[in-house]
Design brief:
Strand content: over 45%
Number of strands: 31
Radius of gyration: 23 Å
Distance between the termini: 26 Å
Structural class: mainly beta
Helix content: 10-25%
């Protein structure tokens, strides 16, 4: 939503709902048919690991080869240096076939092997082992029995198991990403709120509408998504159940209603409302349906996000002229300016450990992802180098990756980048506009 936000700051005299309504039409006409994965980046720094292609007996779909999915996931995290298959000196699929010397020669510290057996009746057994090359021991091993259409999910679960064993915290790969897809038809634009695997596969539509959809935000339990819908020339905030499709509008306040963000306990939403005449930050209690005003300033305050502990809000504000990031106690108080470098900082989000804030920034090189270290009194924002113009960014639950919307040339895409900036992974779509992605906080089976 960064380009929308940029338009808002430029046109502060306009009614906000008109700015939003006009800005959504910049997205390209669409008709997405499929997704492919492209990983870019040169040298990687991380744990050297080798993933041997699994031996396969009767796997029907070449797009769901577990070893390829695992390798792509581990590489995308930026925590692993995946050694190319062409350097492998052998191809074991069982423990008794492993010659550990082969892997020490190519400087691999860890080794993943496995096999797949067709059990019949659309059931497949997947076995994998993660081995320590130097101690010549097994670190973890598991077996899965799945239908063919769950092969990718099993590969994501294996990726998570490897990541957790090697890094020490849960991985992000068997979690979902929610995003907005915009398509054009002869009748006009169609907006879809969709969820997909963390690599963009298996998209499912949970809401299709002729009305613009903005700002999806997962609840902490991943059962609900809050979002904005522009209906009848009004911005309305809805909460929708991911599983049943049931949705409800929260209190419809006069003026602008936008930018919902769930509190860590799932009891409140931070919102931007203009019911008192100017866009300000409010905290809305879902149970009492009371909205408490948090900020008071003639400038636009918007895009609030919660700290992991729930005691602080960060938000974008034009009170210093160009948009900057501020923090304020979640129950109200005097805001503190955080960022100072560059000429644009907006759309902030906390890392899961609360140490970093990601945002969209312009440091003179276009609109990119920026990182601010919490507590840095200089207000410096560090830019991550990416391939396009960025529009929206959110952390993965582990904090090792960021998911964002980007425009490269004339194509609107979703992408991830490792927090060290070394690996960018594109989720390429044949057509359409894809925007405002956000990672689910927990794993679940879609």
């Amino acid at each position: 939503m960064a380009r929308q936000t940029r338009q808002r700051y430029v046109r502060q005299g306009m009614a906000w709902y008109l700015v939003i309504a006009l800005s959504i039409f910049r997205f390209e006409s669409a008709g997405a048919q499929g997704v492919t994965i492209e990983v870019t980046g040169g040298a990687y720094s991380g744990i050297p690991i080798s993933v041997v292609p699994f031996s396969i007996n009767g796997l029907p779909d070449p797009n769901h080869q577990p070893a390829e999915i695992i390798e792509s996931n581990l590489r995308a995290s930026g925590r692993f240096d995946v050694i190319p298959e062409k350097l492998h000196l052998s191809r074991p699929d069982a423990l008794n076939e492993v010659n550990f010397r082969d892997w020490r020669i190519i400087k691999s510290e860890a080794l993943v092997i496995g096999n797949i057996v067709n059990l019949g009746n659309d059931r497949y057994e997947i076995r994998f082992r993660l081995l320590d090359v130097f101690s010549e021991t097994q670190l973890v091993g598991k077996k899965f029995v799945v239908p063919a259409n769950n092969m990718r999910q099993a590969a994501h679960q294996i990726s998570d198991a490897i990541y957790e064993q090697m890094i020490g915290r849960p991985g992000d790969f068997n979690k979902a990403i929610a995003f907005v897809n915009v398509r054009s038809t002869e009748e006009g634009k169609t907006y879809r709120l969709q969820i997909a695997d963390s690599d963009g596969w298996n998209p499912k539509t949970i809401l299709e509408s002729p009305y613009a959809i903005l700002s999806p935000s997962w609840s902490p339990d991943a059962n609900r998504i809050a979002y904005v819908s522009i209906e009848d020339n009004r911005t309305r905030i809805f909460i929708q159940n991911v599983w049943t499709g049931e949705r409800m509008a929260i209190n419809e306040f006069e003026g602008l209603n936008t930018a919902p963000s769930w509190s860590p306990d799932g009891r409140k939403l931070a919102l931007t409302l203009s019911r008192d005449g100017n866009p300000e930050i409010y905290v809305y209690d879902i149970t009492t349906k009371i909205a408490k005003r948090i900020t008071r300033n003639p400038a636009i305050d918007t895009e609030a996000a919660w700290s992991p502990g729930g005691d602080t809000l960060i938000f974008s504000s034009g009170r210093a002229g160009n948009p900057r990031i501020y923090s304020v106690p979640a129950d109200g108080g005097e805001p503190t300016r955080l960022t100072r470098s560059g000429n644009y900082n907006a759309g902030p989000t906390f890392s899961p450990d609360g140490r970093l804030i990601a945002m969209i920034t312009n440091q003179g090189n276009g609109y990119k992802i920026g990182l601010y270290s919490v507590g840095d009194t200089s207000g410096t924002v560090t830019e991550l180098s990416t391939a396009g113009e960025e529009e929206f960014v959110r952390f993965s639950p582990s904090g090792d990756m960021l998911v964002f919307a980007t425009t490269v040339g004339n194509q609107s895409r979703l992408s991830t980048i490792s927090i060290n900036g070394q690996v960018q992974r594109f989720l390429k779509y044949e057509d359409g506009a894809y925007r405002e992605p956000t990672w689910s906080p927990i794993s679940f089976n879609q």
